[in-house]
TrEMBL record, chain A:
<protein>
    <recommendedName>
        <fullName>ABC transmembrane type-1 domain-containing protein</fullName>
    </recommendedName>
</protein>
<dbReference type="GO" id="GO:0015833">
    <property type="term" value="P:peptide transport"/>
</dbReference>
<feature type="transmembrane region" description="Helical">
    <location>
        <begin position="221"/>
        <end position="239"/>
    </location>
</feature>
<keyword id="KW-0813">Transport</keyword>
<dbReference type="Pfam" id="PF00528">
    <property type="entry name" value="BPD_transp_1"/>
</dbReference>
<dbReference type="InterPro" id="IPR035906">
    <property type="entry name" value="MetI-like_sf"/>
</dbReference>
<comment type="similarity">
    <text>Belongs to the binding-protein-dependent transport system permease family. OppBC subfamily.</text>
</comment>
<feature type="transmembrane region" description="Helical">
    <location>
        <begin position="48"/>
        <end position="68"/>
    </location>
</feature>
<keyword id="KW-1133">Transmembrane helix</keyword>
<feature type="domain" description="ABC transmembrane type-1">
    <location>
        <begin position="182"/>
        <end position="371"/>
    </location>
</feature>
<dbReference type="GO" id="GO:0015031">
    <property type="term" value="P:protein transport"/>
</dbReference>
<dbReference type="GO" id="GO:0005886">
    <property type="term" value="C:plasma membrane"/>
</dbReference>
<dbReference type="GO" id="GO:0055085">
    <property type="term" value="P:transmembrane transport"/>
</dbReference>
<dbReference type="InterPro" id="IPR025966">
    <property type="entry name" value="OppC_N"/>
</dbReference>
<dbReference type="InterPro" id="IPR050366">
    <property type="entry name" value="BP-dependent_transpt_permease"/>
</dbReference>
<keyword id="KW-0653">Protein transport</keyword>
<keyword id="KW-0812">Transmembrane</keyword>
Amino acid sequence: MENNNLNNLPKELFKPLVRKEDTSETISKPSRTFGQEARRTLLKNKPAIISLILLIIIIIMSIVGPHMSEYGNDDQNLSRAKLPPHAPGLEKISWLGFDGTLTDDFKGSTVEEAKRKAIARFDNQEKFIDFKVKSKGNGERNSAEVEATYHVYDAKGMGDQYFWLGTDHLGRDQWTRLWLGTRVSLIIAFVAAILDLLIGVTYGGISGFFGGKVDNYMQRVIEVLVGIPNLVIILLMMLFMQPGIMSIVIALAITGWTGMARIVRGEVMKVKNQEFVLAARTLGTSNGSIIRKHLLPNISGIIIVNTMFSIPSAVFFEAFLSFIGLGIVPPNASLGSLINIGFQNLRIYPHLLVYPAILISLIMITFNILGDGLRDAFDPKMHK
Amino acid sequence: MARYILRRLGYMIVTLFIIATLSFFLMKMLPGSPLNAEDKLSEEQKAIVLEKYGLNDPVPVQYVRYLTGLVQGDLGISFKFDNTPVTQILLDRIGPSALVGFQAMVIGTILGIALGLIAAVFHNGFLDYTSTIIAVLGTSIPSFVFAGLLQYVFAVELGWFPVALWGEPEHTILPTIALAITPLATAARFIRTEMVEVLGSNYMLTAKAKGIGQAGRVWKHGFRNALIPLITVIGPMAVNIMTGSMVIEQIFAIPGIGEQFVSSVLVNDYPTIMGTTLLYAFAFIVIILIVDLLYGLIDPRIRVTGGNK
């Protein structure tokens, strides 16, 4: 019955609001520029901010990470190949997998046979293997099962050495190589994205700004280029050039800029016919400063978003190339080549695949979420 | 429309010609020779081999011969794989690739549509967030990482499937799932955005006012309208599947085109590399053409010939 109460309010409570000349026109909300609005929208987007923080951590780790471990990128030593992760402090908690042990199940017709298999598998170091009988068996084939835990570090007399993420098939420290690989992958992605940006914005900008015949010819060229699948060109370029960081960057840049060029052209065409450009022209501004001062700031949002999405796709292509053997050359590592090595050892040494796989997924996910966040931030409809 | 198709076909031929030319000359400029590994061959034997494959002729002659063969569907003879004609190799291997690719495409799209639909109907609810997370993971995680995860969990640990084997229908399950995750995520994301927009439109309100139940509204009025634009992402999805198939076939040992390409690269078998490249390019271009034409047919508002008026 609150409604009734409101209706029965005594009239004396109401006072006319005196209209004042100086207050009726004031804007109650502070006026914000587009950039400020965009920043506000982005900062409110929690997933995007978390992604940004994670990315910064990954970037910092890719710079500092390799120096945190005492082992270098190419410190090979076959006597310590394929060691499991062993980290100080964390080694006490066995389920985390940093205790420097290899664990596997072995089957046999009797417990003894299963144990023999385990011992043969684990370098015949019976003293350093703990057995846990899972099933006693009844004499039939593979009916008995034991779980064997092999203390590799102790067996090799390296109990005081710590390879935080283990070692690869040549005994190189996985921690060092993981972060060096991340560094290589990120450098390739950033450089390729910047090249995309430079070529695409220049090409699209010129095409859109001058229009007419220039635009027509430039667009025909793009139409043919877009028809050629990226993958085919990248693969051909990689076959032709010596594999390595530079050729991956070039192959990615050659194919990547067309999307950016098309978007920039469309946006420039939209903006260049608006009144403020006409005003600038009337005031005698040169083409160069119209492009720099009036057009670019207006299309910068879409350029940033597009660049943001081209980074994860470059990370993916680099990993893809390295994975099929056309990318990074040893001894250098990238996330793709580490994953490739991981696959070769998947059955027995899954730790070689797990960490690079997690890291590349994390990089891709965070870049995509951040890209989505930026797209929302630069979309005026999303500003509240 | 006929003019538009003709023009597109013209572009297609130009593009294929450029790719054929480009790959031919790049292969010619490559430092390695297919004879490098056979150190034991005498000079005379080498000359015979070069003569047999026509590698002694001047490059322009080889180029014309290659193009003539190409028009007739002859891609040359493989240097490494038992002297088989490349066309034969590709024909033998297209089956497995097409099977897994098609399965992945169909399953991924259908599940993706379902996921997107659920997300849109329960907009901003728990199911929406779950499906968004799946979509983000699906678009972000590279297919080969996902394949590794599947292989480790279902083949190595649980032992439900062989790690890498080809032959039985159940051997296609893991590779299909690994390939389907990208189209699934793409479709889910796309349908969700479209559906949220459609569900908020005025004609949905009219339908509600007429007394149509929620299921009827979502299905008859919403879903059909959201489905049309999905065709635009089918092209990119197919491209994704083809890229993914190279690594997936490698990982699961599927005797398909992608696996053939990777192994040809490793042994410098130029005719096979060029043949595979051309096949990929051809498939890409045809799919994109079909998608463009379908789009014009399904949605009459989009006039593909509009620009020519």
